[in-house]
Amino acid sequence: MNVQEKEKLKPGMKNIPKDGQVIMAMMKEMGINECDPKTIVQLCEFVYRYATSVLDEARMYANNTKKKNLDVDDVKLALQLTNESSFTTPPPREIILECAHVKNYTPLQPVKPHCGLRLPPDRYCLSQCNYALKQSGATYKKKTNYVVTGASTGLKITTKPNVSYIKRSSTPVGVTKQTVAVPKPKITTNLNMQPQKTVLKPKIHITQNTQIQMAHSNNSNNVSKVMEEIESLKRKREDEDDIEGT
Amino acid sequence: MSNAQQSVTQQSTGAEEINKAQLAAVLQILKKYNLKNTEELLKKEANISDGIGTQGTLQKDSNVNSVLTGYKSDGDPETYANSYRELKFFVEDSLDIYKHELGMILYPVLVHMYLELVYNGHSEKAVALMNSFGPEQDTYYQEDLKKLAMVTKREHMSGNELADTFKSNQFIIRMSRDTLSLLKRHLNDKKASVLLNIIQEHLYFDMYEGVARNKSQIDATSGAVGGEAKRQDNKAKVYYGIPKAPDIQTLAAPVEEEEGEGGEQDNPEKKYMILKKKKAKKDPLFSKKTKSDPNAPPPDRIPAPDLKDNDKLEKVKAIREASRRVTLGQETQLSVCCYTLLNSNNTVCCAEITEDSSMLAVGFNDCIVKVWSLVPQKLKALKSAQQLQDVNIDAEDLMVRIMNERSGEVSRTLTGHSGPVYSVSFSPDRTLLLSCSEDSTIRMWSLQMWTCLVVYKGHLFPVWDVKFSPLGYYFATASHDRTARLWATDHYSPLRLFAGHFSDVDCIQFHPNSNYVATGSSDRRVCLWDCTTGNHVRLMTGHKAPIHSLAFSTCGRFLSSSGADCRVLIWDLSHGHLVAELTGHEKPVHTLAFSRCGNILCSGGLDCSLKVWDFSKITEDISSEEVNVSHNPDVKTGDQYLLRDFATKSSPLIHLHFTRRNLLLAVATFDGSNP
Fold this sequence. Notes:
By secondary structure, chain A is mainly α. Chain A has helices at residues 2-9, 18-29, 37-64, 72-86, 93-105, 138-141, 201-205, 220-245, and strands at residues 133-135, 155-159, 164-168. In chain A, strands 1-3-2 form a three-stranded mixed sheet, covered by helices on one side. Chain A starts with a helix and ends with a helix. Chain B is built from 20 helices and 29 strands. The relative contact order of chain B is 0.08. Chain B folds into three domains: 2-212, Serine Threonine Protein Phosphatase 5, Tetratricopeptide repeat (Alpha Horseshoe), CATH 1.25.40; 252-283, no CATH class; 336-669, Methylamine Dehydrogenase, Chain H, CATH 2.130.10.10. Chain B: InterPro entries: TFIID_NTD2, TFIID_NTD2_sf, WD40/YVTN_repeat-like_dom_sf, WD40_PAC1, WD40_repeat_CS, WD40_repeat_dom_sf, WD40_rpt.
């Protein structure tokens, strides 16, 4: 029994499926004689997945030309395109050198005196508020499904079949300037164009210099309710973004 | 002292042939862009008739680009092996003093012959050439030859990094005048056109006056992709000194004045007293540092952010700590405290400890960064916005008050990257952390809010290393795209692009004076870059394998580097010479650290051992020797510098750090799989 077990443990070529053996042979040719057994499994996995994705793509091309079966040209095209997109190499040294020459031509700028963290302009930071409030326009009024209670806060939230926008009435009563940095709404009526992803939270909850003041509403319930709704909308928006992104 | 390029000159029929082909290529380009007048002029001048220009010398299948690469050759494939063999015999038969220097041309000649054969479609001949002469090359070239041997078709050449490098760059060989003239004479006698072409097109001889080098001298500096460094590369002046620190003496003075004048500070009296007291106490300590280093850069050479009160207090603290430092040496052995990361085998990529040894950050290959507190104080987060409103901003302990006392944790996780985190770096003031990842981004995290603040994009490929400058504000990154970049935290795009390496830049390190950046690359070269101009000022060859780690000596004059060749090399930045080679490690060396006093160098790596080297002895031995630009000093080797060897229990070391009092902290990962 002991002998049998030993034989099993021995990494004999017979126990490894043919694909694994091919990969081992390839590695040997590349000069790799010793490796973790897991490596072979992983490389096999890669080979399968790569082949599948290339063939999938080839089938798409075949379908596109209304052919019934795949042919060599489809596979060739698929290979060529995947090669261009996924097996890229860094740009040639000469091009990099040229870029470097241009870039390094400008002298280093003196450091500006600054208070607090030195960060790039807001639009490049993650601390930036990255949702936009919309001016409530006449076009939306008909479609408004519900208006948040406590409309006196000036915040109206409308929902639409696909997209939800947070609207601000023309006179921003309760929202102080610092609260939500509203990029002057250049009303983007096109619903398919969503300029920015909605992540609301950071600015309001964390940063020191931001705060929400509801001037006209003494009822704190209202505030929290609005907040909740904004949150839920935000989640919704994100979900939608995800779907679009895929 | 003429160090101008000395290339082998020759007149032969081969050269004319090439000329014709090149002219034809130019003509073709002109035709392509419809530049008729120029074309006619050129034809007239070169006396080329239409027939020869386009169809005669040019074969139809070879396009313009291929002609310009210079590998087009009409040479008989049979002659290659013979002319290589002849060259080999010539080298072996020459006098012993010239033999080794002449031997340096064998490797590049073989490579170019191989590529030329492959390019012209004689694959079998190429493989035969490689098989018969490849194995007899120096051991450190074997890896590259193996990679090149995979190129057997012309189509393979374009994707191969090494073949590209050889094709578009000259291989640099340093040679004494006598050896070079000997070689030239031989080539002129032989008239072997294949060899002549290769030597003229692809080799660059950097000639020097003096005696030819011996085998060990040559071995010390050879091994890099692209040959040795030219003397020209190491001529620029490097301000390697450390500028007189804008120290508390100078620092405290303006602060005192400001506050004395009834300044804006909230609690002038108290602070004033503190500073004054410290100043009085530490005076003797500061006075030691007052002599300025003649090699130091002017203080305004690189724009530096101005120090804030907090930074100043931090400096005072650091100096106070430093006064309790143990000076290490042969008599006073160092103590090591090792942090072992358990259950982390194969998941940890990097580790870093803050300058004051209070926090440890570790980057994992599952995209997260973890930060631990190494002191009893826990990691606290900022209070929420509502709570911050209630904080009295006039309070003197404002920094304490804004933190949420109940949020203290021993470790915190930062999530955001979408690939393995290859390196992390703390800012000097410990409020920021940088991390770089396979996803080609660099992220800056706030260690007060524990969120990501900025994502710096610019590299197109995985980023291998990131380092904050000792000044703060600036940071540098190294990437697979063969560049290193200098950034500032408030700029979205990089400020400088350090380009020139032939392969991945694997590691990067700031010079202690922040004016320079050193990079180590997979092309086995170490490079020093000037942050102000973006040019390289030192190029150092001698490593035989990719470089994993770099460290500047405390004095700023020396650079140590280590890598997969299991050696630690010490370079003198004043002239770019290799001065010492420390052998002893059995596996790649991944981390290096100089003690705060500058007397000790520690190295640790995959062989689970930590070696302590006597650096003060090395510098002593070097200073006794006369060194100038042209004279290479003898490389110090041997075990004479090894002071101690600490072994860990199957825990490869990934980071070393000296505390302000010179206790060595090591970070290792326990590898449970092979106990």
